[in-house]
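Appendix B. Chain record.
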Amino acid sequence: MKIPKEVTQIIEKLQKANHEAFIVGGCVRDYLRKKKPNDWDITTSAKPKEIQKIFKKSFYDNSFGTVGVPLETDDESLKVIEITTYRTESAYTDSRHPDKVEFADSVEEDLARRDFTINAIAYDPVNKKYIDPYDGKKDIKAETIRTVGVPDERFGEDALRLMRAVRFACQLNFVIEKDTFASIKEHAETLRKIAKERIKDELVKVVVSERAHFGIMYLHEAGLLKYILPELEMGIGVSQNHHHPYDCYYHGVYALEYAAVQNYSLEVRLAALLHDIGKPYVKEGLGTRSTFYNHAQFGAKVTKTVLKRLRFSNKLIEKVAHLVDYHLFYYETDVVTESGVRRLLRRLGKENIKDFMEVRMCDRMGSRVPKAKPYRLRHLEYMFEKVGSDPIDPKMLKINGDEIIEMFSLEPSKRIGLLLESLLQEVLDDPKKNTKKYLKERVGELQELSDKKLEAIASKVYELKQEKDAEIKAKHWVK
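Structure tokens predicted for this chain:
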């Protein structure tokens, strides 16, 4: 691992102008671990105006003494180098923000305000000089997370550091030093003071890490998860039927583990973790004969509540809730027909098939079964591809609403949608009927029916299919 010449050149320019300058924080930590940093931060004795005099294209739009220096490069870690003046921070009366930020005279004062020893190391690559007053290098070698100074004071300053400690342990595969961990548990409740957006950001970093499941369990062990995902903790001790060797909580955690190993998307990882979050609310019975009717649908509602509270985007919320809602889509090779697969495609959405298959595999591996993708899932993929070009949406019909309006001199209304939906139900059963000639003739016949009868036609096939699926699911103890 080498320090980029662009970073060294910036430090050289600052030093030639008679200012101290060091790389600092996470980039030093990663450099010592021989890992490429996501970004490069520099701390200096120069004040913001002095920095801007040296770097003419820099920008300064904050109150923390941080100047951004943009570079022309394709390397994302070097797009903007942040240079921050040495600073100190006063008391944190709200456990979130310092009451006052002031410029400091030395790098040692600046390092004293930082959270963990592994992030409180400065390095001068020009003179090959480390400033490490809290033995951060030693803790990196020992793979240990330890606060700078007294743990209670550090966590009292900013309660988000409670989550950051766990996040670093998760990302770096480090352990949290025992006094630091004890302090986290002591101050866990102060996480309530932190803005949900900041909590979300830390949670995402845990969930997208390689050891995401470890991070969730560590958050639970530290007493923090109850203030982040209390609904998930409700699954602790909630046993399942004979298909599941673990309770609801550990099943979700192990499902997330598989998602992380496979490097699935954030949406799939969240769905894997939360897919059975509805079970504790709907459980009936005890032991291996427990039932969890409608837990997927209820879980989708809980998922929306959870993710909204954590300030996730509406787009992500809808996607994850949809994955949870239909994660138990039923498929049996000798029962489901091509029309059934087309209806399944319509409910799931073609664009979501890959994600649904991944969630399904996570669900399976969360129960530690031998295979993530058994024959029937492989067969389902084959069927999806086979019927993938068949119409599963009114927009794919060979006739559209405008044509129906013109044919019968109708006004745009709900009835046009009912006519199209009724036509689609026939085409789902027999794609060969999706011709303009047949559909024009058929819509003429349907036009004679009342709205009520059209509604019955539009929903009849789907309802019958759902009833049949429910019977088969009950027979095989699939909910």
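Further analysis of this model is presented in Appendix C.
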